[in-house]
Amino acid sequence: MSSLMKPFILLSSAEQQLLLTSLGQPAFRAKQISRWIFERRVTDWSKMTDLPASLRTVLSDEGRRTVPAEIVGALASGWATKYAIRLDDGEVVESVAMKYDYGTSVCVSTQAGCKMACAFCASAEGGYIRNLSSWEMLSQVILAGKDSEGRANTHVVLMGMGEPLDNYAEVITFVHALREHLGISPRRVTLSTCGLVPQMQRLAAEGLPLTLSVSLHAADDITRSKIMPINQTYPVADVLAAMHDYSRTTGRRVSIEYTLISGINDSPEAARQLAEMVKGHFHVNLIPVNPVEGMGWEAPGAARVEAFRKALESKGVNATIRRGLGLEIDGSCGQLRRRTPRTTK
Ligand code: SF4
To answer: What is the pLDDT of residue 311?
Structure first.
């Protein structure tokens, strides 16, 4: 493909119409194509069956793509499918489609790599490469956008590779684009952050009803700094204050992600400290740490995880143990990375 040949969704509507008329087609075909891409999540010209066959052939043959990304690998496991998605500059990011009772949710990457260097996280391993554009994020939702029965996804989670609030402007544009192009309301979007306090404050003032999920992982600064270097800049008390501020200002739910690591943050005392801090305010999701090759962290056994949950519950804190969704395909939290899976679709 010529580097000058923009993918279809990156063209302005005037450019789209010009493209179609230059191919001897009526301008309304542009709308028809947009409907295939955004409403039906179809990105393959050959499958746009109400376009003339000759047009589909020309568009395929000239190498024009519909979106600025393509699936180069996929691994499915029960109710989760992980996609390796190659961007125009060759960077590969990962997205995961997960089936729930309420519909399908797509976990989207917001950066290639990540600067935050959380100790248990595979995404941070190769460092930070670049921010993704809002169109690259939207393309992930379109590409990973349908379940095996052909239903379009209903929810989006910004919890893939990268720290969404470190790519603030593009992420906000993406949230607006989700509503405009795919009909996914911000109420169905969850943004997960490691606790960038100034951006959390800015987000609270944005007027978008996003659900916020904050990775806490420890209730004391010494332990949290061991797990998350960002804690040296934004310590626990500041993160907590920003969470209260977000919840007050937006009226939206804020939840806490707490990755349980054996011998690090899974003691009864850690549970007591966490409970004191969050009770009456925030739901806690407990996630036994996922094994990541070469990292050396271990998850506590099932009994210890349950004891931690019960300790929180006994203090009046709602806590859920998150199932290891997609664990066997490295599609769980902290396991998305910049690589192409060996298995291709
Ligand atoms: S857990 Fe999130 S913020 Fe932390 S390094 Fe991984 S991708 Fe970045």
So the answer is: 97
Q: Which CATH architecture has domain 8-61?
A: Orthogonal Bundle (1.10)
Please say if the pLDDT value at position 3 is more than 60. no
- Judging by beta carbons within 10 Å of its beta carbon (0-12, 13-18, 19+), is residue 142 exposed, middle or buried? buried
Whether 107 is catalytic is no
The yes or no reply on domain 69-329 and CATH 3.20.20.70 is yes
As a whole number of Å, the CA-based R_g of the chain is: 21
0.85 exceeded by pTM: yes
341 — phi, psi (to 5°)? -60, 150
The ligand 1 site (C-beta within 6 Å) comprises 114, 116-118, 121, 123-124, 161-163, 194, 334
Q: Give me ligand 1 centre to Cα 239, in Å.
A: 16
Please, what is the end-to-end C-alpha distance for the chain in angstroms? 22
- Given this model, what pLDDT does residue 171 score? 98
- Give the CB-side neighbour count of residue 330, counting CA atoms within 13 A: 20
- Among residues 94, 136, 163, 170, which one is catalytic? 94
Q: Say how many Å lie between the CA of residue 94 and the centre of ligand 1.
A: 13
124: CA distance to ligand 1 center in Å? Answer: 6
Q: Is residue 85 over pLDDT 60?
A: yes
333 assigned to active site: yes
Ligand 1: which atom is nearest the Cα of residue 193?
Answer: 3
Work out the pLDDT band at 147, boundaries 50, 70, 90: low
- Cα–Cα distance for residue pair 343/330, rounded to 1 Å: 13
125 CA → ligand 1 middle, Å = 10
Enumerate the domain spans of the chain.
8-61, 69-329
Question: What confidence tier does 338 reach under pLDDT thresholds 50, 70, 90?
Answer: very low
Q: Give pLDDT tens digits for 191-227.
A: 999 999 999 999 999 999 999 999 999 999 999 999 9
Residue of the nearest CA to atom 7 in ligand 1? 162
